[in-house]
Amino acid sequence: MNPRPLAPENYYRLPWNMADNAITWLEPTTKCNIFCEGCYRENNPDGHKSLSNVIKELETVKRLRKTDGISIAGGEPLIYPDIVELVRHVSSQGWKPIINSNGQALTPELIRKLKHAGLVGFTFHVDSHQKRPGWIDKSEEELNTLRLKLAEMTKEAGGGRIACAFNATIYRDTLGDIPMLTQWAHNHMDMVQTMVYILFRSINRDEKDWDAFVHGEKIDPVKAVDKLVYQRDYDESVHRNITAQEIADKIRETYSDYEPCAFLNGTEDPRSLKWLLSLAVGSNGKPLGYMDNKFAELIQLFHHFFFGTYLAYTRPWLMKCFQTFFPMAVFNKGMRKILLNWLKNPSKWLSPLYSQAIMVIQPIDVFEDGRQNMCDGCPDILPYGERLVWSCRVDELEKFGGFVASIPKNK
User: Fold this and answer.
1) Residue 16 burial (CB < 10 Å; 0-12/13-18/19+)?
2) Which domain holds residue 360?
3) 141 inside domain
């Protein structure tokens, strides 16, 4: 038995839901300039949407969902010809524009244009299973050179006003890199506000054991799987599914006091940890500690009370003023621990104290009885037509006109 199992009863269940959420996903394009092994979207060379159509999709968001930020993704949004105009429009509506990018097309000039248009943050996807020109077959540790380059460019060209986050899809063969990646993130708390680990998922079951249905109509499961971009003929001994618990155990190999503070559960299993959030506090290097569930709850409720939305990204300058929260130590246990550690380190008294988020995302799990455990209250909901759908499964809608349900035979 794991000596420190993740216990959702000890964490704050983030209040995000379909109608009121911190973030909403937007795809102005499905065209991309590199290949990522774990991607759920098929690369379409003609995938750019017109700006007017994207704005119509945002009207759907406005009608159906209260949101703090808009994650502009794809495809690769930096090659979308109207990206600056789109960021400006998102900002004009009172939302925080956030760009999810592989960073391949990033330049200082583009960062400056996006900053003036109102961009709040970048989330760069960098991992060793990408086919990125100049970086193919590089290890996760070698890719830290690229991560640092992107972070430094964002800080310098953005004038310190644009938040910088990184995500990486974690596979069985890169699970052992989690301590190193977490340490790299903590070593650069002055530039990297968030680190995200997305746990690899694929359709890799034996199709002959399952029946597949769309809108109640039976379809050929083999043909169905072959049509989906996230189907791969992987060896399960190499790409066996990873859980949030395994990520936490790996982080604790280097940071033994690591502890999450908030989560989103699954739609079928309320104890599953689909989005798992921790908030580290410190200067560059080893954190002084991690905030607790009550701090996470207070921040979300405070932001909703005063601004009307749950909190998504914050400006970098707000992430380096953590000393201003020290008065909360009077009633918050997690804050008292961090304050005590800070007082024991006089060398940190005159240095900025940063907060940094570590997020673990565990995508769809398919149970033995065919139930699909999605993220309950998922922030990556996408406007599709006149409704909102899970962005990770929109490929099913485009290939079959509906979500694919799998049911085990003889059950």
Assistant:
1) buried
2) 8-408
3) yes
